[in-house]
Design brief:
536 residues, alpha/beta, Diaminopimelate Epimerase, Chain A, domain 1, 9-stranded mixed β-sheet, 15 helices, globular
């Protein structure tokens, strides 16, 4: 057993002992440990959607109701927190986020926000500045905006001089492509004759020479190597900062999509960081690192700590439409005759993953954006099994941009497909009315109350109600991870994950919704962010 695996095994064993000791140490109590009172509390429970007070015992909700009902149950040791009329709600469950990771090397930072597009000259200057600060041979990395990566003039040669004796990798903002300089390509062992890796693509010019552009899975293995070199301690520090920000948003659960770290390192990072966040880690095989001939049926759910588990497997089946236009579409992209994007994998590969999903070992999560990709996967699902077999499996389509017609929505409903991280501009009203389960996901930038505003925007015929949107932020995401019996609703026996808001999300002006934060966040009945004093 290597040192990483041995360390992880030791941490898991210690966590198991902690769970047993905690269970034996606790005894039933007649009175609650904590009461929240004088609130405007959205429970998410259809039978009792709004209450004034909640009582908590241990990690679970004990009771909900009026102040008059709950307050008399307080005992001598019960802590009572007055919400002073603030709105509270179930903790938000982010079903699709990338938590980031520490990256080895020096960042080439431009004056632009990461999502904007600097000029090639500005990029070169940023690389040159970073190179001057870097140790000999150290990697230079950075983000280059949404569309500049498609500029044909941005090639390895454009940044070779600026990078000097440093390998350089610049990633597109949405993460589906990167530009490397000549030294960077040599460093990773890629040359003109290197075949495309499974799921990825090395771009060549008309003479057959590498341009430096790497797409999809071709770049992922490189980021993984850089994260490995950064080490676990740096990743722990980075993640602790991330967790603090999410808890302040009212997020109590994050379902972790791909990060730059390999799974074993990611597990070590989360366990050592020991934050209050509940974490669900999805397996994300990198074909360049893990043979496609290997077993990707999944290992089922694995509990690392009481708040951290590994469950589900994710594949990126196509790209995105806005930057490199790689999402697989039924029609040509405007101005690009004959180009509809492309799938990352063959139909046979997709078929194999769907067959694995039918075994029921691991929930299948598929990044699918294009409408042609959407149709292809649903076609394969219907060929392999009846809808009755698919519905309990809750196959997830991450993003789900392709559900643009009533026919596609009806198929999704029949097959039990869950759409996670539906983006702004999606037909929310039509999807909800069609009975398609939706789950909120920030995808690295879209905060929960920003998305609440997007989903409920006045004047939009596809808007849904604020109560429907709050349900997507909570119960919808819990359903997407088979946890609707544990979280997403404030009802007796459910986890006491609660966000007390800075403003009432039911009455705040639409333009102000995105400013909403959590002034007090509870995870398992314990304060994880903010203090009771912040409520005054």
């Amino acid at each position: 057993m290597n040192s990483t695996n041995a360390g992880l095994a030791a941490v898991r064993f210690a966590a198991t002992l902690l769970c047993f000791s905690h269970a034996f140490a606790q005894s039933p109590q007649a009175s609650p440990d904590l009461i929240l009172r004088h609130g405007h509390i959205f429970t998410g429970d259809p039978a009792k959607p709004w209450v004034e007070a909640v009582s908590i015992q241990g990690e679970k909700i004990l009771a909900t109701g009026s102040d008059a009902l709950i307050e008399p149950t307080a005992g001598k040791r019960t802590q009572v927190i007055d919400l002073h009329g603030r709105m509270a709600m179930p903790g938000i469950n982010d079903a699709h986020d990338h938590t980031g990771s520490a990256t080895y090397g020096v960042e080439a930072a431009t004056k632009h926000p990461p999502q904007e597009n600097p000029s090639i000259a500005e990029l070169a200057e940023a690389v040159r500045t970073a190179a001057a600060q870097a140790a000999p041979g150290e990697w230079i990395h950075g983000s280059i905006g949404r569309t500049v990566i498609t500029n044909p003039k941005l090639t390895r040669m454009a940044i070779d001089d600026a990078g000097g004796d440093h390998p350089v990798i610049l990633q597109s903002y949405v993460g589906h492509g990167a530009i490397l300089n000549t030294l960077g390509l040599a460093k990773i062992g890629v040359d003109d004759a290197t075949p495309d890796p499974p799921g990825g693509h090395y771009d060549h010019d008309s003479d057959g020479h590498l341009t430096g552009l790497l797409e999809e899975y071709a770049a992922d293995a490189i980021w993984m190597r850089l994260a490995d070199e950064a080490g676990i301690p740096a990743a722990v520090q980075q993640f602790q900062g991330y967790a603090g920000r999410r808890l302040a948003d009212g997020v109590t659960t994050v379902q972790v999509m791909a990060t730059n770290q390999r799974l074993s390192h990611l597990e070590m990072t989360f366990v050592q960081a020991d934050t209050p966040l509940r974490l669900r880690i999805m397996r994300f095989p990198i074909p360049a690192e893990d043979s496609l001939n290997g077993d990707h049926t999944g290992a089922g759910e694995e509990i690392l700590m009481p708040r951290i588990r590994v469950a589900g497997i994710k594949w990126v089946l196509d790209g995105t439409p806005g930057d490199q236009q790689l999402a697989f579409m039924t029609k040509d992209y405007p101005g690009r005759p004959g180009w509809r994007g492309r799938p990352n994998f063959t139909v046979d590969f997709i078929d194999a993953q769907l067959r694995n999903a039918l075994l029921g070992k691991d929930q299948l999560m598929l990044h699918i954006v294009g409408d042609a990709m959407t149709d292809e996967v649903m076609d394969e699902m219907e060929k392999l099994a009846l809808a009755e077999r698919w519905r309990p499996l809750r196959v997830r389509f991450e993003h789900g941009n392709g559900f643009t017609t009533p026919e596609r929505m009806a198929r999704a409903h029949r097959l039990g497909i869950v759409i996670a991280q539906p983006r702004p501009g999606r037909p929310f009203r039509a999807l909800v009315d069609a009975g398609v389960p939706l789950a909120y996901g920030s995808d690295g930038g879209m905060g929960p109350f920003f998305m609440l505003g997007i989903m409920t925007q006045p004047g939009n015929p596809q808007a849904i109600t604020r109560l429907e949107a709050l349900s997507i932020l909570t119960r919808g995401s819990a359903f997407a991870e088979f946890q609707e019996g544990e979280k997403g609703v404030l009802a007796p026996g459910m986890l006491a994950d609660i966000a007390v808001l800075s403003q009432d999300a039911m009455t705040a002006a639409p333009q102000d919704l995105a400013k909403t934060k959590s002034v007090l966040t509870l995870v398992g009945g314990r304060i994880a962010s903010g203090t009771a004093a912040d409520l005054r």
